[in-house]
Specification:
TIM Barrel; single chain; binds flavin mononucleotide; about 40% helix; 2 domains; eight-stranded parallel β-barrel; 14 helices; about 10% strand; alpha/beta
């Protein structure tokens, strides 16, 4: 049996953009964190690290071409970790080796996806019920990946009974970085986040931890890092809402005032996102529908009454969509886009639970 690579021989984690500052990462999001979105985010201020949406691993799997593009054509200047979801040891190892031929910063294992169709196959969040299986998987991946091997997980499945045991496995297998979403699988996306568990992980683990879950603003990032003592934060939905958030985090970490964003700048973001997500053969109606999924998050900071969201959701054409943007964003172009979502303005009402058929986390199924 070969010996796992010594941690002395592995590369260090890539340095943050501003040396000595806490780390920031864009959370992996299926159907969101693709090449186009990464480019848009980098335009407004890249995070230190990117993670791909998950590559599915099974007997017949090959790395999905569209996800590979976010690695091979990454022009953000920042490292990208390739995320895998699966449970078969042989095929996880095979897929890691395939992905290591591409310019990845490391291999990341998904142990958090809460979609029933996923966890029923004992992958993603489903693994959190089975520490013995986690032991095997982490052992195999550590053995296979000579460089950085990272894990993203939740604090448990139904409850947190295996939490400490799983953290000890993360230590045992010399994982290089843990991104921890402070909710159980059953808590999905909208319960409060248990930052106290994230703090416990920091105390118990040898590797750095990224705090994940409801990091809504740079001020929240500072507060959570202070409370949990993590090495940094991982931000998902609130980077869709506010792509300036990583730049704002760096300002806050440096103790500088946060540069506010105006509604006119938000319109610029929407135009950029529209152009970046366009591709040959995409019907206008589908493109507008795709944009609405991002704008559900953006709308949480435009006005406190949800008027932008209301009007935006009723558009069907590009012209209608941008007419709504002009009406709501250019009437008072210098008005400030709120740092935090307005209370009660919800990205997608009535849609907390993914349908039984959803085979992942997509914007179709996840609320703000
Ligand atoms: C649309 C969407 C897709 C997601 N896809 C993935 C994924 O592919 N892999 C993963 O580990 N987590 C995925 N997640 C979970 C996020 O990475 C993150 O853990 C979660 O959204 C909580 O962070 P936030 O409050 O900053 O959004 C997804 C979340 C959303 C909203």
């Amino acid at each position: 049996m070969s010996v796992p690579p010594s941690s002395d021989l592995r590369p260090p984690l890539p340095s943050p953009i501003v040396p000595e500052q806490p780390l920031t990462a864009l959370a992996p999001m299926q159907d969101v964190t693709d090449l186009a979105f990464m480019g848009v985010i980098a335009h407004y201020g890249a995070p230190d690290y990117f993670f791909t949406e998950f590559f599915r691993v099974h007997a017949q799997s090959k790395p999905e071409k569209h996800i590979l593009r976010s690695i091979d054509e990454n022009k953000t200047g920042r490292p990208v970790f390739a995320q895998l979801i699966g449970e078969d040891l042989h095929h996880l190892a095979r897929s890691s080796i395939e992905l290591l031929r591409h310019p990845v910063a490391g291999i990341d294992l998904n142990m958090g996806c809460p979609a029933p169709k996923v966890y029923k196959k004992n992958v993603g969040g489903g693994l959190l019920r089975d520490p013995a299986k986690i032991d095997e998987i982490l052992g195999t991946l550590r053995q296979t990946v000579p460089g950085l091997f990272t894990v993203k997980m939740r604090i448990g499945f139904e409850d947190t009974q295996h939490f400490e045991r799983i953290l000890d496995l993360v230590n045992k297998h010399d994982v290089d970085l843990l991104s921890l979403h402070g909710r159980t699988v059953k808590e999905m996306y909208r319960s409060e986040v248990h930052y106290d568990y994230i703090a416990r992980a920091v105390e118990r683990l040898k590797c750095p931890v990224l705090a994940n879950g409801n990091i809504t603003s740079a001020a929240t990032a500072v507060r959570v890092i202070t409370q949990t003592k993590t090495a940094g934060v991982m931000i998902g939905r609130h980077a869709i809402r506010n792509p300036w958030i990583f730049r704002q985090c760096r300002e806050a970490f440096a103790g500088r005032p946060i540069t506010p964003v105006t509604l006119a700048e938000v319109r610029d973001y929407i135009v950029r996102l529209y152009e970046a997500t366009d591709h040959a053969g995409l019907p206008e109606r589908d493109h507008v529908n795709k944009m609405k999924k991002y704008l559900n998050f953006v709308g949480q900071s435009v006005d406190g009454t949800g008027a932008f969201l209301h009007d935006m959701r009723r558009t069907e054409t590009q012209a209608q969509l941008f007419a709504v943007c002009d009406r709501h964003l250019l009437a008072e172009p210098d008005k400030i886009f709120a740092d935090e979502p307005y209370p009660g303005v919800i990205a997608r009402p009535n849609c907390e639970t993914p349908s039984a058929n959803a085979d992942g986390c997509s914007l179709e199924t996840v609320t703000g």
